[in-house]
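pasting for the record
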Amino acid sequence: MSKCLVLLCVALFLQGCVSGFKIHTLNDKFSSPNKNISVITSGNKFSNKSITGKFIGFSMGIYLNPFVIKDNSSFKPISVGFTLSNWVSEKAETFSSMCKIIFLADGKRIEVILDPSVTIHKQGTESLLIGKYGERFHEVSTGCLSFDDFRLISQSLFLEAKIVGKKRSKTYLNKEVLPSFLVNLNKFYEQEVENYNY
């Protein structure tokens, strides 16, 4: 649980300054030698569609960033998962606590239970020239899954997903999933997970 909380906090920070897909290793030379290695990502945008079906551009939208925890001596993956982030400008576009995400990866159903999500509301900024702007709502949660399910999702050619929240849910059809999402996910899988014997 504490590992997921740390990943959640780092994900919140990194999502605030997203500019394209990036892979980050959280460990550095100051980390405890007994600490497992955490490799997280930022900028893996899943869809430009909000829960209401409205187009959301720029840094707003649904992000599904993969992560892996590795053994610090063998570098073998111990667990894999996703950090799910929903950046929107209206409260009506939040899931009101994300509970799970259900994938259909080339027809195979994969369910990922999410930790209770955190919602952050940033107030808008006043400007004499523009007026009020910049109001944001950010929901974020993490969930782990099996290595085989992670591989199936990352290598799928046809992917759909349903994000289930306490009050609202949204189904993302294959055409609503950004093509770059699977390209980035597959790159992460090949680079950080597949090359190690898990």
